[in-house]
Input
Amino acid sequence: MLKKDHEFLINLRKKKYQNIVLNKKTISKRNELIKKILNLELNNQKVKSKKNFCCKKNYFKENLINKNFLIFYKKFNVNLKLKDNYNLINFKKKTNKDTCFCSYIHISNFIIKSKKINYVHKLNTILKINDLLILIFNIKKNSHLLDNFKKILLYERKLLKKFI
Ligand SMILES: [Zn+2]
Output
């Protein structure tokens, strides 16, 4: 996808979603981007032959549990992104490196299942996570996670319908 199509998302994140009035144009632009992803099919040999690679070892895949995921959920909501590694005792970041695509997929799966977060907060966070996932999705590296990504986009739609 073209960078230009993503500019409004980059701006939303830069402003930390503060004082944002979403207009129809922005919403329809976002819907267009989502539609493109939902329509992506991976039966294209070119994509299939590429190595499916996001990261070798994922901190969240290994360490995210029901007991600590709310801590990362809150961290994401404050910073709009997560780092690649955290201390498991005090949850301070251990690196400045931003984490990768699959981490947000893992945390989204926890958010979707959680009974501790209400739907308003779930929607609020999933919208922000999806904005970021749209921005960092790389078909060569993340194609093996496409189905899961689509599920999260569809979950967002389902939640939105509760409020419209
Ligand atoms: Zn990864």
Summary: The chain has a mean pLDDT of 91. DSSP finds nine helices and no strands in the chain.
